[in-house]
Specification:
It holds the Pfam family PP_kinase. By secondary structure, the protein is of the alpha+beta class. The protein folds into 3 domains: 60 residues, no CATH class; 68 residues, no CATH class; 62 residues, no CATH class. The chain has 9 helices and 5 strands. The strands form 2 sheets. It has a 3-stranded mixed beta sheet, covered by helices on one side. Helix 5 links the parallel strand 4 and strand 5. The longest helix has 12 residues. The protein starts with 21 loop residues before the first strand and ends in a 17-residue tail after the last helix.
């Protein structure tokens, strides 16, 4: 029973977004110059303190991936930025498409989660270790060991564009394929800048797919 005397069979604790998912420990505690602990490990280790006076029989990680497609009709909108902002605010409520759970999660709990999110067994993935390894991508930025890192990459200039007076002239000679990040992104910016200044340009249309954080 919980603190209010109610029967408590299942509780879901969402990790606060304000807290880092990867916690760097002091060397005197970790025994290493650079030691890290996942926030989820702290939560599992101290789960009894999250639920005082309750017998906790298990604690398992899970992660739900939701459909984040944006539905924007360019024929019906007048302000693209405003329309996208409206769609972004609802992305967290999209239909679930995948469930990742810890490998030792009980079959009964796995079925319960699948039912709650409207998924099937084919959508369930049992993970050996941390559920979301993307959190480890920040480790290189936290470890000051230049010898372990690749030198900064300088994108190559695009010869087909450098030899032309402007991007439009280069495109008239034929299609151009840019391979990022190996080739410079500057031509894309130049194309937008030149198109914005060209009185003959009536519209600028682009398809952006899975852009990075930058």
């Amino acid at each position: 029973k919980d603190a209010f005397g109610r029967e408590a069979e299942l509780a879901i604790v969402q990790a606060p977004r304000a807290l880092p998912r990867l916690v760097q420990m002091p060397p005197e505690l970790s025994g290493y110059p650079y030691g890290f602990v996942l926030l989820s490990s702290f939560m599992q280790g101290f789960v009894h303190e999250l639920f005082p006076q309750i017998d906790v029989h298990g604690c398992y990680q899970f992660r739900v991936t939701r459909n984040s497609d944006l539905f924007v009709s360019e024929d019906e909108i007048t302000d693209l930025r405003e329309a996208l902002q409206g769609e972004l605010s609802t992305r967290h409520f999209g239909d679930a498409v995948r469930l990742e759970i810890a490998h030792d999660t009980s079959p009964a709990l796995a079925r319960r989660l699948l039912e709650e999110f409207g998924l099937t067994e084919a959508d369930c993935y049992r993970v050996q270790g941390p559920v979301n390894l993307v959190r480890l991508l920040q480790v290189p930025d936290l470890v000051d060991r230049p010898v372990l890192k690749y030198p900064p990459h300088t994108p190559a200039a695009v010869k087909a564009i450098s030899a032309s007076a402007n991007v439009f002239d280069a495109i008239r000679q034929g299609d151009i394929l840019l391979h990022h990040p190996y080739e410079s992104f500057t031509p894309v910016l130049e194309l937008l800048q030149q198109a914005a200044r060209d009185p003959d340009v009536v519209a600028i249309k682009q398809t952006v797919y899975r852009t990075g954080n930058e």
